[in-house]
Protein: GNAT family N-acetyltransferase
Organism: Komagataeibacter melaceti
Amino acid sequence: MTRSGHPAAPMPPPLSGQWRPMQAEDLPAVEALAARLHPGCPERRTVLEERQTLCPAGCLVLPDPAAGVGGYVLSHPWRMASPPALDTYLRHLPERADCWYLHDIAIASHLRGRGDMHAALRIMTAQARRQGVAWLALMAAEGARAVWAHMGFTPIAGIPPHVTRSYGPDACPMRRAIPPAP
């Protein structure tokens, strides 16, 4: 596994005041939360760990006093036309990324409705701008397409079907343009 230098730069302080950079010791709690929230999309801890190692600036946790980790973000620069299949290793980040890929944003149900998802998107949008990409991209799965559409994401055509299917029968690749900086 190689590590690209540009996304590993220290992340600025979170915009929301809630999210913080993910640490290696957070991975067991992230894995447990992912298993609970995404039972139809299991991933090995080593896959999650690789994303955190390759792009620490794109991986956050939402602290929860009751559970330790109440949410997480796993994201990284990538190529929009070829999103990674579920539970696959990236090995390295692309030299010429054209999107900031939101591999997963998950928040425990008892913490939803506080604006943390919007805060995470603001943080990742700022990170994408720093990397010079013009799009956020993701794979909406497990009934989340309407949520992402509400947040301005639209379907992407032409994604390899085997990649889309790896996220489940209702998976939909989506993207949202990054607006100019204010």
User: Anything to note?
Assistant: The two ends are 36 Å apart (CA to CA). The chain has one domain: 6-177.
